[in-house]
Specification:
Shape: elongated
Order of helices and strands: HEEHEEEEEEEEEEEHEEEEHE
Helix content: 10-25%
Number of helices: 4
Structural class: alpha+beta
Largest sheet: 8 strands, mixed
Radius of gyration: 27 Å
CATH architecture of the largest domain: Alpha-Beta Complex
Distance between the termini: 98 Å
CATH class of the largest domain: Alpha Beta
Strand content: 35-45%
CATH topology of the largest domain: Phosphatidylethanolamine-binding Protein
Low-confidence stretches: 1-28, 76-80
Length: 308
């Protein structure tokens, strides 16, 4: 009887220690951060109360950046300009600096205190609090526009009439979908849009938008590449204008299955399509449901076909 009680007690003690160890591990991620005294010029276009709140938030950001560091995140945005009545929408990539920390609690806040420097208002402030590193859920995906079946010739533009080819790779197992955005309309590039995202293996290169005869001709499988049957048919880009057109290849990835957006059959193009706004809403909904859902965007510049 004593040995049984000792075993139970040992198990209880082990679970207690394990629980304590778990809490130490969790709370060990939480750190005390201190901005020290920081000075900021008065932000334009804000009321006094808004300016004070902005100053405090900036001090928090600097405090977390000093402890957890920062990262550069690339975001693709569309810039619209009006050129003599003709609307031109081009894609550009912006590098956004993000702090790799999350503010949990403010324990000390001194200021903000105003002072005049050279006729301008400046604020001094110091904040101290608890913060933790943000969870890194994104993975580094490779999605390149290519000129060949094997994907060894990346390109930055296409000419009207060219085939769209691409190469994809993920460091981890997951599921993917691919779309093509042009003039505010998004087209599904899958042979069957009613199915869930297609499964892919981590550390494996995939050639996209190549038919079986092309695949066999270059013996791509011997190069260690794989093809996705649902993304095996080819399509050509068009541009009837005299200037470059803009389009985008969009890849959606998650480590779990996910369903496609609701789309309509486009009789003229013989493809499933959806408005860009609805796709962006679908992306936000999926990203809100899961930390493991992400999107990769590849801008495509389409040159007019050369006329000789």
């Amino acid at each position: 009887m004593r040995s049984i009680l000792s075993l139970k007690q040992a198990c209880r003690n082990f679970l207690l220690i394990a629980a304590m160890g778990f809490h130490v591990l969790v709370f060990g991620q939480i750190k005390t951060v201190d901005s020290g005294w920081e000075f900021f010029a008065n932000p334009q276009g804000r009321t006094t109360e808004e300016a004070k709140q902005w100053v405090i938030e900036q001090a928090k950001i600097r405090a977390m950046a000093a402890v957890f560091g920062t990262r550069v995140k690339s975001e693709t945005v569309q810039v619209t300009s009006d050129n003599n009545g003709k609307i031109d929408g081009s894609f550009t990539e912006l590098n956004v600096l993000q702090v790799k920390g999350e503010w949990l609690e403010t324990t000390v806040c001194e200021g903000p205190l105003p002072e005049i420097r050279d006729g301008e208002i400046w604020w001094s402030v110091r904040v101290e609090g608890k913060a933790q590193p943000i969870k890194e859920s994104r993975v580094d995906l490779t999605l390149d526009l290519c000129a060949d079946v094997l994907g060894i010739e990346p390109v930055t533009f296409l000419e009207a009439g060219d085939r769209v080819r691409a190469r994809f790779q993920s460091p981890v197992d997951g599921h993917v979908m691919f779309f093509y955005l042009e003039n505010g309309t998004v087209y599904a590039l899958s042979n069957n849009n009613t199915e869930f995202a297609e499964e892919v293996e981590g550390q494996r290169e995939y050639a996209l938008f190549n038919n079986e005869s092309e695949w066999l001709e270059v013996e791509a499988s011997r190069q260690g590449m794989k093809r996705l049957a649902r993304y095996s048919w080819g399509f050509k880009v068009t541009n009837e204008d005299m200037v470059d057109a803009q389009a985008m290849l969009i890849g959606a990835f998650a480590t779990h299955e996910f369903a496609p957006p609701v789309m309509n059959w486009n009789e003229e193009e013989q493809m499933w399509s959806v408005e860009e706004e609805r796709l962006e809403r679908w992306i936000k909904q999926n990203a809100g449901r899961s930390d493991h859902f992400q999107v990769q965007r590849v801008p495509i510049r389409i040159r007019p076909k050369q006329r000789y």
